Amino acid sequence: MATEKKRGNRETKKPKKPVLKINAAAPSTKGAVVLP
Questions:
Q1: Residue 30: what are its φ and ψ, rounded to 5°?
Q2: What is the CA radius of gyration of the chain?
Q3: How far is CA 36 from the centre of its chain?
Q4: Quick one: where's region Disordered (predicted)?
Q5: DSSP output for the chain
Q6: Quick one: pLDDT band at residue 34, thresholds 50, 70, 90?
Q7: pLDDT score for 31
Q8: What's the CA gap between 31 and 9, in Å, rounded?
Q9: How far apart are CA 18 and CA 4, in angstroms?
């Protein structure tokens, strides 16, 4: 059970980073100009 939970945490963390980058990359162009 612990191994499955650890594996799931790593799999959720890996795809979560690229997902945030993609979401932040799209609005980054507009957000970067509005933020600074």
A1: -80, -40
A2: 15
A3: 22
A4: 1-36
A5: -HHHHHHHHHHHHHHHHHHHHHHHHHHHHHHHHH--
A6: low
A7: 54
A8: 30
A9: 22
Report the 10 Å Cβ neighbour count for 28. 13
The two three-digit tokens of residue 13, written as one number: 């963390």
Question: Which residues are CB-contacts of 24 (< 8 A; sequence separation ≥ 6)?
Answer: 31
Give the predicted TM-score (pTM) of the model. Answer: 0.15
- Name residue, tokens 């979560």: 16
The stretch 20-32 carries a mean pLDDT of 56
Tokens of 22: 């993609």
Structure tokens belonging to residue 4: 């499955």
